[in-house]
Design goal:
Elements lengths: L6 E6 L3 H12 L4 E5 L9 E4 L3 H8 L2 H7 L3 E2 L1 E5 L6 E4 L8 E5 H14 L3 E4 L1 E6 L6 E7 L2 E12 L13 E3 L5 E10 L5 H4 L2 E6 L2 E7 L4 E9 H5 L5 H9 L12 E10 L3 E3 L3 E2 L2 E3 L14 H21 L4 H33 L3 H7 L11 H6 L1 H12 L5 E3 L5 E8 L2 E8 L8 E2 L2 E2 H6 L7 H11 L5 H13 L3 E3 L11
Parallel strand pairs: 1-2, 1-11, 2-8, 5-14, 11-20
Antiparallel strand pairs: 3-7, 4-7, 5-6, 9-10, 10-11, 12-18, 13-16, 13-17, 14-15, 15-16, 19-20, 21-26, 22-23, 24-25
Helix pairs in contact: 1-4, 1-8, 2-8, 8-9, 9-10, 12-15
Length: 501
């Protein structure tokens, strides 16, 4: 590959985020190259993808290939979160919906093949440096097959995960309360693991951390523990000894290895972090290069796929209309920060629950670590507010009231995804933040459906038929916001008439 001609996008890293963004952009007609550093399969993690990840796989165009591969099903979790008795959290009691248990080297190779099939060029390479300052094309310097080369592109995507080829150039910000280390062991069972473990993730807290166990086949499981990184950095001795010491502190996760053989063990960073800047004139950070959430969430692969999908939409927008590049990148950045803040809040809740049972330094420090530096507007706080709750109760008990659009309602510009592009439309102005969607319901479409004055039942029927079918509970949540914010007001009735005046 020579420095000429200039490509549209160079993607650094061939994990889920990098492959997703490469496949989509290539399928939309852009010139894409992926510089992927081969990784040792012996250090490959086993990860889970929740059932909701299927929608993303379908949008990226890889669902059929993933289902054909035959990854084992994941049907939920067995959790000992400060509890002596495990809690079975099944995704679907009927078994109709299930997630997947994936070995990352296998998943990554599959996704790279899908990107190549779509037209992206895949090149085994180690990136040495990136120049992406100003508005000139980015320049990427790399090594492949023992030779040094470079390539130019209108945009460079850092999808290199924790390596953060671009992100580590002063953009990464670690969460000081969540500097963590993971020890991972691969275990093999000559027969088969107990049946109740086969399609479940085992999760357990203990005084100094937490552990999990997840299978990639009937005979292989990965058993891991997550501990404080500051403590483990000062420890000495073989990794296997430190791993065994932590595993012995668990009751259930450690016991799950009974009768199995430990094949290998390794350690890796499990810290949480985000980036001060997610995008620039010629670069974009996606996946774990942009932000990394607590592995406890089990949403790591799903988050990476979502980041890759939205990153592709943002870059496509910038490539077809440079005047919207800033809007597209701002939209992508806002969403990445929202995802990180939401997952950080979930981590805090989990830590508070664990600290109630384990009043140890590991858990109490995390339970008290509020994140003010990365705070974003909490839409859920609006939904929990007294005005929305009062509006919800009013809607439930006064179905015959007709509602109409309040023409004094304030609308503000807001970026949204439409097809493969990000455009500016309008959103409802609230004291907290502009809102266009609540629980997947389009507030503007719902509000405008009420312009002729409709009852709650009429509005629900009209929205489901002309916009999209939604659960009635989500519909009522969205309608409650419109009423609470004064966007919808009661429509007066004319005397002797069944229709609004």
């Amino acid at each position: 590959m020579s420095a000429e001609p200039c490509l549209d996008v160079v993607v650094i890293g061939g994990g889920p985020a990098g492959s997703a963004i490469a496949r989509l952009l290539a399928s939309w007609g852009h010139r894409i190259a992926v510089l992927n550093r081969p990784r040792a399969p012996t250090r490959g993690q086993i990860e889970s993808i929740p059932p909701s990840g299927r929608k993303l796989m379908q949008a990226i165009g890889v669902l059929s290939a993933i289902e054909r591969h035959g990854f084992p099903a994941n049907r939920g979790n067995v959790v000992w979160w400060g509890l002596a008795d495990g809690r079975d959290e099944t995704f679907d009691a009927d078994g109709a919906s299930h997630g997947l248990q994936v070995l990352r080297p296998e998943l990554d190779a599959l996704l790279l093949r899908e990107a190549e099939t779509a037209g992206a060029e895949i090149l085994p390479a180690t990136v040495r440096s990136v120049s992406c300052e100003g508005s000139d094309p980015a320049q990427v310097y790399y090594e492949t097959a023992g030779t040094s080369q470079s390539v130019r592109a209108r945009f460079v995507v850092d999808a290199s995960g924790r390596t953060g080829v671009v992100a580590r150039q002063g953009l990464r910000r670690y969460d000081p309360a969540h500097r963590m280390q993971a020890y991972l062991g691969l275990w093999h069972h000559d027969g088969a693991w107990p049946e109740n473990y086969g399609d479940r993730t085992l999760v357990e807290t203990y005084e100094d951390g937490w552990g999990w166990s997840l299978g990639s086949s009937p005979s292989a499981r990965q058993v891991a523990v997550v501990v404080d990184a500051a403590t483990t950095r000062t420890s000495r001795g073989p990794i296997a000894r430190a791993y065994a010491k932590e595993l012995d502190k668990t009751r259930h996760v450690g016991a799950s290895t009974t009768g199995a053989t430990l094949e290998r063990v390794w350690a890796c960073d499990a810290s949480m972090y985000t980036a001060t800047i997610m995008a620039g004139p010629t670069f974009l950070l996606v996946g774990d290069a942009a932000c990394c959430i607590d592995p406890l969430s089990s949403f790591g692969v799903k988050k990476a796929l979502a980041s890759g999908w939205l990153g592709a939409v943002a870059l496509h927008t910038a490539l077809v209309d440079s005047s919207r590049a800033g809007i597209a990148f701002d939209h992508f950045t806002r969403r990445e920060h929202e995802v990180y803040a939401a997952e950080r809040a979930r981590t805090l809740e989990f830590a508070e629950q664990a600290a109630a049972y384990h009043p140890s330094p590991f858990w109490t420090r995390r339970a008290l670590a509020r994140d003010t530096a990365n705070a974003v507007p909490d839409v859920n706080a609006l939904l929990r507010g007294p005005d929305v709750k009062a509006a919800h109760e009013r809607l439930r008990t006064a179905d015959e009231v007709r509602w109409r659009w309040n023409h004094a309602a304030r609308l503000v510009p807001y970026s949204v995804v439409r097809g493969h592009e990000i455009i500016v439309e309008e959103a409802i102005r609230t004291p907290l933040t502009p809102l266009r969607y609540v629980a997947g319901v389009d507030l503007l479409a719902l509000g405008r459906a009420s312009q002729d004055g409709r009852t709650v039942a009429d509005l629900f029927d009209t929205y489901c038929r002309h916009v999209a079918p939604v659960p009635v509970t989500d519909f009522l949540r969205a309608l409650s916001v419109l009423v609470a914010e004064g966007v919808l007001v009661p429509a007066p009735f004319a005397a002797g008439s069944s229709t609004p005046a």
